[in-house]
Amino acid sequence: MRLNSAQVTQVLSQMEAQVLPDDHPAVTELTDVFGDHTFFLDESGLKVLEPTEIPETDVQSSEVVSLADWSDATLTSLKPHAPEPTGTVIVFRPIRH
After folding, report:
1. Which terminus of the chain has fewer Cβ atoms in its 10 Å neighbourhood, N or C?
2. Is 97 contained in some domain?
3. Domain limits at 44?
4. Does residue 75 lie within any of the structural domains?
5. Tens digit of pLDDT for each residue in 39-88?
6. Which tens digit of pLDDT belongs to each residue from 16-51?
7. Are the CB atoms for 30 and 23 separated by under 8 Å?
8. How many whole angstroms from its chain centre is CA 92?
């Protein structure tokens, strides 16, 4: 799921991670492997968001999905794995202009 800058700000306020900027050299390869997403890195590895619904509400939300884990202690190499839902749900608040 691609996010706009306001959504990225909301994600970062709800989870400890860093967003990988679109101009980062790894983004092209990550997009080729995992699809068109906004990518996040945290202490355990590479994450994306997938849309989800909260039953009986109109709240827009997404679940954090893990795609790769760090394979070294210096957090410089990732080992991909099958997508794993983390159980963390990000709730997007309406943007007021």
Report:
1. C
2. no
3. 5-92
4. yes
5. 999 999 999 999 997 777 778 899 999 999 999 989 999 999 999 999 99
6. 999 999 999 999 999 999 999 999 999 999 999 999
7. no
8. 13
Q: How many domains does the chain have?
A: 1
27 domain-assigned = yes
Spatial separation of the C-alpha atoms in residues 24 and 39, rounded to whole Å? 10
Distances (CA, A) of 48 to 4, 14, 21, 57: 13, 14, 13, 23
Whether 77 is covered by a domain: the verdict is yes
Are 96 and 21 spatial neighbours (Cβ–Cβ below 8 Å)?
no
